[in-house]
Design brief:
By secondary structure, this protein is of the alpha/beta class. It has 11 helices and 17 strands. Helices cover about 25% and strands about 25% of the residues. The chain binds NADP nicotinamide-adenine-dinucleotide phosphate (NAP) and zinc ion (ZN) (2 copies).
Amino acid sequence: MSRIKAFAAYDAASPLRDYEISRREPGPHDVQIDILYCGVCHSDLHQVRNEWGGTVYPLVPGHEIVGRVSAVGSDVTRFKVGDLAGVGCMVDSCRECPKCKKGLEQYCDNGFTGTYNSFERNGKTLTYGGYSKVIVTTEDFVLNISGKLDLKAVAPLLCAGITTYSPLRHWKVGKGHKVGVLGLGGLGHMAVKFAVSFGAEVTMLSHSPSKQKDAERLGAHRFALTSDSETLKSLAGYFDFIIDTVSAPHDYNVYLNLLDTNGVLICVGAPPDPAQVAAFNLIMERRSIAGSLIGGIPETQEMLDYCAEHNIVSDVEMIAMQDVNEAYERMLKGDVKYRFVIDMATL
Ligand code: NAP
Ligand code: ZN
Ligand code: ZN
């Protein structure tokens, strides 16, 4: 066991501050990673403030982790000391159920082990995330990271990247499809990049007029202000898919009505409260509303390799560890361009 510097939430209301955690000595299958960068996901904020329920304090968030391997167990084959490595939202799963066998560990029948706010398979040891200096994780949940890309801008791919890549692949989004991306934040800006890269026609649906230029710079073919009822009227029945990344409560019916026949509203944003959907908005055009959770380990590696090949990274604003509380407030206001990433050297 080693003692590791970390940053934690002690309760739902106080600012995060210094904390010290234990990490196990690497076992035979473990990889120990010195964390260089960790992205700040809106899910960190939801869980710090216990908005989804079930938060165990002190909570060390962070599941967009990139670093360098500093030790490996005797049976590790894919990593050696000095390699770049990444950890996303999961650090283990049961590995036996049909979902795990298919590489869909995020849907593990026995529950995956989250990178933080979760219990290891022993049911006793609480997991701690990437707002810390070091992480020790089983090799099977560690991702290979290419040295070709800007490392700090790679970190957000481990959650924001895979969460948007996975549904776009699942629904085979590409050439000939009209895609709307709702909400231009961490997930939204990656959804735009991937959907454009896959050949779709992409419209940014945002409630922030100030983001129009950025949406276009990110590759969106058009921008629509969701607070403008005339604009929404003109887009009725327009889209094949809308990928909804909004973190706050909003009316799904408004966006269902922008879908064409057979259109799918794909929810990845996770507002805490349930919403009401009118059956007729689904029935009339045979529309669906669907959800998608991060992505499995094989697909996460596929996404990272795709990004290395196509030069895709996140647009990041670097922050010091101590600035994370302010970053949360800015994220709540939609003032993030388009992912905060913590430089772990500042911890
Ligand atoms: P983020 O960077 O804060 O972006 C959210 C965006 O939603 C904002 O930039 C804003 O875009 C829009 N928005 C925020 N408040 C709004 C409001 N009151 N009304 C309308 N639009 C609003 O958050 P993120 O990190 O991308 O995460 C987004 C959501 O996805 C969170 O709920 C997070 O927990 C969830 N998530 C889910 C998964 C999954 O596996 N499904 C994985 C990661 C994250 P505009 O200014 O452009 O409108
Ligand atoms: Zn996340
Ligand atoms: Zn499983």
